[in-house]
Design goal:
Structural class: alpha/beta
Shape: globular
Strand content: 25-35%
Number of strands: 16
Bound molecules: NADP nicotinamide-adenine-dinucleotide phosphate
Helix content: 25-40%
CATH class of the largest domain: Alpha Beta
CATH architecture of the largest domain: 2-Layer Sandwich
Strand order of the largest sheet: 14-13-12-11-7-10-9-8-16
Length: about 300
């Protein structure tokens, strides 16, 4: 199937282009970006131009930041094309619900991707936790924004999510591996004086059986970068590290892959998109985004020093 890629920035070039190139399902037939291009692929500077000119492109993958994504998705769905959304699937929950309604109305597939759920250790972690009693779960997601998000000013603007841009990946994993639903019970958000979004956050969650569930997000981490989820249960301790790529149970390696590299995550997302299009389905799980919205609703803001890149 011919696919167009929209928003040719870091993730499009790092992951989407190689995943499409190696997929048996897809051919990258067009790009839409104001500045970015992909060698050898026809490029357009607006969605409307691409959709008008390329009736052969039936599927569009949106790699834009969250705020411009809704208009691009709406235009694409109304043109009768299937849509794949980078995470988070929109800037607000309401936008996402509107897109679900539009996709149903126009009979197209819509996919809210959560790439971290495709990390190598996630399915085994989910299976192991399914019959255990959880006592404590600790999320530690600490990375250096200057290293991983250079020049991405949108992260600090309304809708950009700040430290929840990576933090939502942890929440996407936890909401997949835990058999029980959790919700935010309190949060503290550290917001730089010159930014609209948090640079750090501490979150407590309610767990139906009373397990202690917490998250600690930091965007100013120096030295070792940490993307770890630790689950303490009645039958042992599970640790998912490197963003879900590695899994240990009671200190024993169950799975050891390359350090955090997203390897395999995007090919699995594109394979799932092919199945959705073939079967005409919508996959829009908004649970991770709901937790972020709750943290923003309930969280106590603490002003902190301005952020200077
Ligand atoms: P990025 O490097 O800033 O790229 C986004 C691209 O979107 C830009 O290059 C820009 O290309 C285009 N764009 C269109 N309208 C824009 C606007 N109003 N503001 C800024 N850019 C605009 O961002 P990214 O890291 O690829 O992230 C994009 C999405 O992927 C985010 O939702 C992010 O959470 C997700 N994601 C990122 C990573 C990662 O490691 N970076 C990993 C997984 C998921 P033109 O200027 O050419 O139009």
């Amino acid at each position: 199937m011919k696919i167009a890629l929209v928003g040719i920035g870091k993730i499009a070039l790092d992951q989407h282009v190689p995943a499409i190139a190696t997929s048996p399902d897809w051919e990258l037939a067009a790009t839409v970006s104001r500045k970015g291009t992909v060698d050898g692929v026809p490029s357009f500077d607006s969605m409307d131009h691409m959709l008008d000119a390329r009736s052969d492109v039936r599927v569009v993958s949106l790699c834009l930041p969250p705020v411009p994504r809704f208009e691009a998705a709406k235009t694409t769905i109304e043109a009768g094309r299937h849509v794949m959304l980078e995470k988070p699937p929109g800037a607000t929950l309401s936008e996402c619900h509107t897109l679900i309604g539009l996709a149903r109305q126009h009979g197209v597939s819509l996919f809210a991707t959560w790439h971290s759920r495709e990390a190598a250790g996630v399915a085994d972690a989910q299976a192991w936790l399914a019959d255990k009693t959880l006592r404590k779960l600790t999320i530690t997601w600490k990375e250096d924004v200057r290293r991983w998000h250079p020049g991405q000013d949108w992260i600090w603007q309304p809708g950009g999510m700040g430290v929840f841009d990576p933090g939502i990946n942890a929440l996407s994993i936890v909401t997949k591996i835990l058999p029980d639903p959790i919700h935010v019970s309190s949060a503290v958000l550290e917001v730089p004086e010159n930014c609209q979004t948090p640079i750090a956050a501490e979150i407590d969650f309610h767990h139906p059986a009373g397990a202690e569930v917490t998250a600690s997000f930091d965007f100013l981490q120096q030295g070792e970068q940490i993307w770890t989820i630790k689950a303490e249960t009645d039958e042992g301790v599970l640790i998912l590290s490197d963003g879900g790529a590695n899994l240990t149970i009671d200190g024993k390696d169950m799975l050891r892959s390359d350090a955090f590299s997203l390897t395999g995550e995007y090919p699995r997302l594109y394979a799932q998109m092919a199945r959705l299009v073939e079967s005409g389905r919508i996959d829009m799980d908004l649970t991770p985004m709901r937790l972020v919205a709750d943290a923003f609703t309930l969280g106590r803001r603490m002003p902190v020093a301005p952020f200077v890149e």
